[in-house]
Amino acid sequence: MKPALKSFVLSVLAVAVLAACGGGGGSDPATQDTTPPASLTPTTKTLAGTAAGGAPVVGIVTVKDATGKMKSTQIEADGSYSVDVSDMTAPFMLRASGTVGANSVNYYSAASSEDQGKTINVTPFTTLIISNIAAKLAETYYNDGAFGTITPQALDAAETNLQEKLKPVLEALGLSAAIDLLRESFKADHSGLDAALDLIKVEIDSSTSVATLTNVLTKAKIGEDNLASQSDDATAVTLSDEDKSNLSTAGTELQKIQKVMADLVALFATGTPDEAKIAASGLFDQANFMENGQNFEQFASDLASSGEELVGMQIASSDIVITGPQTAQAKARLKLKDGNVETLDMLMARVDTNSAWKLLGNGRVGETEISSMTNTYSANYGSTSSYDAGLSLFADVEAYNVNHQSAPITRAVVTGPGVQPAGGIVLETTVESGYMSIVRSGPASGGYYGNFAPECSQAVTADCINFTQVTDNAKYTIKLYAGDTTEVGNYELVLPYKPVSRTEVGAENFASISSLTVDSVALTDPAQLQNGKSVTMTWAKPASLSVVDELRFNYLIGSGGSVQLEADLAPDTTSKSFMVEQAEPSGARGARFELSGKDQFGRTFLTIHEVRPVIN
User: Fold this and answer.
1) How far apart (Å, rounded) are the C-alpha atoms in residues 357 and 344?
2) Tens digits of per-residue pLDDT, 330-353?
3) Measured distance CA(211)–CA(513) in Å, rounded
4) Per-residue pLDDT for 48 more than 90?
5) Ramachandran region of residue 500, left (φ > 0), alpha (ψ -120 to 50) or beta?
6) Minimal CA–CA distance to 590: which of 551, 553, 556, 554?
């Protein structure tokens, strides 16, 4: 409620109280108490806590009440969330939907009327608590919408049973066996309860309703929970003495690795460090370092030339997986000063268990990524908007090829769910470029270009993706070759959420361009794009998108040449200007604008607008 409106409501309430008491006669108004009774004072009731599975969930928390009413909120970068439930009816179910690491997740939790205003976490552990109360999958219980078994007594009993089940783990990590796994306030920083979430993996088989608990360090099963039965809810997991020792040590090592990441960020606390300072930091294994084909010297040079963008950045959250006694993988979400979030993904190693952890880079010979992309197209020449969908298969091996000129990477093959042909989609590059594009198979490929693999259709049957075969957390493989047969890289790529088909979208899914001008005049002809001219785009973000985060502006010059300008957009930005340079006196020969947004699941929705010459 806005302050002014709240003041008005309180004034009306005060008048009503006076009238009911026969007010208005005789007494001095200055001595009258016009404060409304406490029962009439508006109050806010919230549910708040941490949504994490070791690392914070990147996504949303949705609260569903006893009447079926739902409210959602974005999870903060540190995993925290808060939802106002003042106008909702207890009991409540909660669902955290999003990604942890590279995988999509759905975690569940619940709260009674007594939990309003208190901490309620949403984690794999709370998912088990709710499943055990319901004697069915938490997902099914949430979807059914009948939450009568969610009572304070049921929540307490199920939480106590899970404490007993996890007691050996909690004690090995130095935690109290009485820690409240549902309501304990914690940070996703790899300490305390978060360390337990880091080191114990919970996997639920929906076909059998059995949850398996695994020691992340040893990959060994340590227990299970039949969610359809309450008979084993308190049966303790099994840990050997060696397991207990390893878990205890791992809790300490998580903190050491986190400290290395923090020390790297600290280099940019007040300014950009030079290459010498980066090298002297002692944070890197310089001899064995490789980051997307770069050696340490090249990486340090790029880092030192990053400008002001990284200065003052902070670690919003991190995902650390210890993969062996001397190896680990750490992924940090870095919050920049402009509010944008970048990801740092590094392998880590140490010579032995007594030495310090060092950063190794990501260990990959090239930058590779797979992502969902749904597009809308419009133009200045009267064509109506159309929609397209597919997967972006990104591979850039420029740095590797610079360092391996005698045997550069020139070819890649991507295989996985829905890929047509089944033998894989082939990408190639020139030695000079390093950027890889799909090798199309003639008319059956549909006339596409670049690294976009479209959704298969009756018209497009090759170098495409059959969406009906793609599920959440679909796993793909990309193999990189020097020449035709020498494999130099083999990596798994995970698509957290299945893509959105072209038949499932409309204008409401995309950022809409409100205006596009050149020096305040509507852009209708690329000839207007002349040197020194300012091009400005404004847009509106739809409710379906979490963020509009990038704008690219490409215009054609000369004989086959082009200029591409791009900008990362700060949150809540709705306008951006570019200065035209290098254009011919007669202006550009064509232009293309790409405005990129992402939904809550990280899927890209691209608004594309083209401006072509006007033909009279």
Assistant:
1) 16
2) 988 888 887 778 888 999 999 887
3) 47
4) yes
5) beta
6) 556
